[in-house]
Amino acid sequence: MSKDLVVYYSLEGNTEYVANVLKEKIGADLLKLVPKKAYHDKGFAKFFWGGKSAVMAEKPELEEFDVDLFQYERIIFGFPVWASNFTPPLRTFIENNAEKLKGKRFAAFACQSGGGAEKAIAKLAKCIGISDFDKTAVFIDPKTKSDDKKNEQIKAFCQALTGNV
Prior knowledge:
alpha/beta; 5-stranded parallel β-sheet; 5 strands
């Protein structure tokens, strides 16, 4: 039984890339959040609608998933940064599962091309109702611009999560 669950949303594959490394390296289970209405993934519309959705704290309806949250000790949230915010599908998940998340430990990682990840992580902690995460990490385009340094950063995050430093 895995004690870690990675709950993530990925638009361009960067967050999913890190989630899969966590699955492989620390044995975490994965829960990919899929909005019923997909976000734009190209051009101006991607930034405009994604940013607006994040800033306005929207809660998109999600596709059904079947995960027993009670079997996990720690939830690791993963998301791309949109306008210095975490992505709306996480907000939906957190609000829909608030009772089941009580008493859990939390970690988080953010993927970004620009900036704002630290603010986004702080906003996510506030949404969950915690003061801080066990561990956090910020990755800059870990899949789309992959290199040895970025892969080492992901590996270091895995080691920090397991305590094998």
